[in-house]
């Protein structure tokens, strides 16, 4: 009897490592659903289709500082330092370690302005259930995501530099109440039309909600110029109206 | 998961006095699923297209009366993924209960490239059925939310395929490419993520023979019960004898949408055990709900055997 118990304990001891390694893979999948205007598109600041640029998906590990919403290089560095991507490698240097998921080509904006497809194999240890998820979308020329498979050690997300921010970068930082990491083995689809004014979370964080679709915000220089232009138009309109009133 | 009801009845067509006949049991099950995450397995099969016995010669059997259009794998060239549409299940010998995809069809034969070489020259009993597919179960009237509610299928190479409802059809995760013809293999299942309640209905035949579900290493093998009307205790399942002793595992999750871990199931070589390798008893045995499944991880390729809920 005693021998049997000892044998059982030995069996337990010997096989425990096997047991631990044979448990279910802890991974989730995350999809961007922005194929058309029904599901909602991410448009530029002028509500036009975005055809160059990409989207990052991840979680935010620092303060959501609304004072840093404009797309400038220094603001980019701030957000980049606290944004953990689902598809960054889990090990390495020179990058924020991420969830280890795959990077699909369709997270680069298509010629129709669409984003779709999924990052699979995202470690649920890095993105546990109910982690709030964000899409950080960029309109930028000459920078694209590199496709990688799950578990890749290659960095797929291009780093933007100061020069990019002199060439009209626009961005949006989006989330919605529904955008929470699923339980292990599950999937979540980040549907742009889920961003609504009724969300309890601030949504979008940077950008404007048009209903199903959302728009990005432009670089501050562009916004300032647009404001000046608008102001000049208003002044001109008033002057013309006054002049017309005087003449009549 | 709230099961509304399951109606199972024997089809009596062809039954006459003083004959020994086997009547297929057909029926349907309806599931009300609230928002959450589920492991889902249909549990039914489609009706046989052809059955009998034949000798396998170079991975092919001769038969008559089959339709090439009904049984042939798809051959899309427009970007749609291609899948087998039918399978031949062996009903005798070592591979009894294993379903092999039909990979080519003529008017007088069907072939499966997946037949193992040791079946060559053997006279086997078989049944041919069409696969249950995603579009058989996840129809627009289920309440599935377009672009949002997801279906995850784990493939034998360890990758996963994500499917959504978009524009009224099941698509790949580009929300454009039709993929509703993707099969759900006998005894296997999918993982569902749904944002608000849906109602699923599964229908078909209850298998009267055992099912062997192939399982692969480094894959989340989703294995159900083939019992569409009742929960199955692991002590009355064949998990204990199917899993490799002290190595393979099955994980059972709650089926209320919360996807919380209910139980680990291991094997001591004959009995289903808990994670300290103490055999479960009928009193403390966890169950796999009808319509649900376990996630099975194995060290080497093999089969998990599912018994039939009915006598043949």
Task: Please give a quick description of this structure.
The complex is a heterodimer of chains A (248) and B (312). With 248 residues, chain A is an alpha+beta fold. Chain A has 2 domains: 23-217, no CATH class; 219-248.
Report what the structure shows.
The complex is a heterodimer of chains A (248) and B (312). Chain A has 248 residues and is α+β, with helices and mostly antiparallel strands. Chain A has two domains: 23-217, no CATH class; 219-248. Chain A has helices spanning 2-21, 73-82, 220-247; strands at 27-33, 42-43, 53-60, 83-85, 118-123, 134-139, 170-174, 187-191, 208-209, 214-215. The longest helix of chain A is centred in the last third of the chain and has 28 residues, at 220-247. The model of chain A is unreliable at 4-23 (pLDDT under 50). Chain B is mainly β and 312 residues long. Chain B folds into three domains: 34-43 and 133-204, no CATH class; 48-130; 207-306, no CATH class. In chain B, 4% of the residues lie in helices and 40% in strands. Chain B is built from three helices and 26 strands. In chain B, a hairpin with a 5-residue loop joins strand 12 (150-154) and strand 13. Chain B starts with a strand and ends in a 6-residue tail after the last strand. In chain B, 44% of the residues are buried. Residues 10-19 of chain B have low confidence and may be disordered. Chains A and B meet through helix 1, strand 1 and strand 8 of A and strand 13 of B.
């Amino acid at each position: 009897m005693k021998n049997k118990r000892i044998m059982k304990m030995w069996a337990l001891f010997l096989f425990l490592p096997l047991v631990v390694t044979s448990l279910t893979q802890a991974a989730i999948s995350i999809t961007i659903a922005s194929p058309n205007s029904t599901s909602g598109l991410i448009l530029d600041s002028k509500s036009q289709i975005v055809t160059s640029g990409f989207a990052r998906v991840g979680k935010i590990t620092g303060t959501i500082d609304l004072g840093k919403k404009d797309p400038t290089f220094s603001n980019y560095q701030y957000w980049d330092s606290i944004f953990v991507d689902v598809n960054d490698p889990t090990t390495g240097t020179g990058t924020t370690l991420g969830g280890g998921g795959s990077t699909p080509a369709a997270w680069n904006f298509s010629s129709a302005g669409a984003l779709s497809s999924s990052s699979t194999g995202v470690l649920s240890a890095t993105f546990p259930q109910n982690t709030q998820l964000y899409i950080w979308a960029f309109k930028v020329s000459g920078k694209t995501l590199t496709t990688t498979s799950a578990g890749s050690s290659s960095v797929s997300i291009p780093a933007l530099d100061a020069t990019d921010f002199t060439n009209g970068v626009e961005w949006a930082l989006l989330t919605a109440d529904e955008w929470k990491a699923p339980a292990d083995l599950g999937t979540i689809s980040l549907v742009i039309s889920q961003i609504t004014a009724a969300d309890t979370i601030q949504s979008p964080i940077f950008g404007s909600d048009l209903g199903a679709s959302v728009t990005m915000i432009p670089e501050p220089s562009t916004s300032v110029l647009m404001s000046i232009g608008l102001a000049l138009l208003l002044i001109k309109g008033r002057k013309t109206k006054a002049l017309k009133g005087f003449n009549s | 998961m709230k099961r509304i009801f399951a109606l199972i009845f024997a089809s009596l067509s062809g039954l006459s006095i003083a004959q020994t006949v086997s009547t297929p049991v057909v029926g349907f099950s309806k599931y009300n699923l609230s928002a959450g995450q589920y492991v889902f397995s249909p549990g039914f099969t489609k009706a046989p297209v052809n059955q009998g016995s034949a000798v396998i010669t170079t991975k092919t059997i001769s038969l008559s009366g089959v339709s090439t259009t009904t049984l042939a794998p798809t051959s899309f060239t427009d970007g749609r993924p291609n899948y087998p549409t039918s399978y031949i299940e062996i009903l005798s010998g070592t591979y009894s209960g294993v379903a092999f995809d039909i990979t080519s069809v003529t008017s007088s034969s069907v072939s499966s490239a997946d037949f193992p070489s040791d079946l060559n020259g053997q006279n086997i009993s078989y049944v041919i059925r069409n696969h249950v597919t995603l579009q058989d179960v996840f129809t627009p009237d289920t309440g599935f939310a377009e672009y949002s509610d997801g279906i995850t299928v784990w493939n034998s190479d360890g990758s996963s395929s994500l499917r959504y409802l978009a524009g009224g059809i099941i698509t790949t995760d580009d929300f454009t490419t039709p993929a509703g013809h993707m099969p759900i293999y006998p005894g296997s299942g999918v993982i569902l993520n749904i944002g608000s309640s849906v109602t699923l209905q599964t229908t078909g035949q209850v298998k009267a023979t055992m099912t062997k579900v192939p399982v692969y290493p480094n894959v989340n093998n989703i294995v159900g019960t083939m019992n569409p009307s009742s929960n199955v205790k692991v002590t009355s399942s064949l998990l204990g004898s199917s899993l490799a002793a002290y190595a393979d595992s099955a994980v059972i999750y709650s089926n209320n949408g919360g996807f919380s871990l209910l139980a680990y199931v291991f094997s001591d070589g004959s009995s289903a055990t808990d994670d300290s390798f103490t055999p479960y008893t009928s009193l403390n045995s966890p169950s796999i709900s009808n319509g649900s499944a376990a996630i099975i991880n194995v060290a080497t390729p093999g089969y998990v055997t599912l018994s039939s809920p009915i006598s043949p």
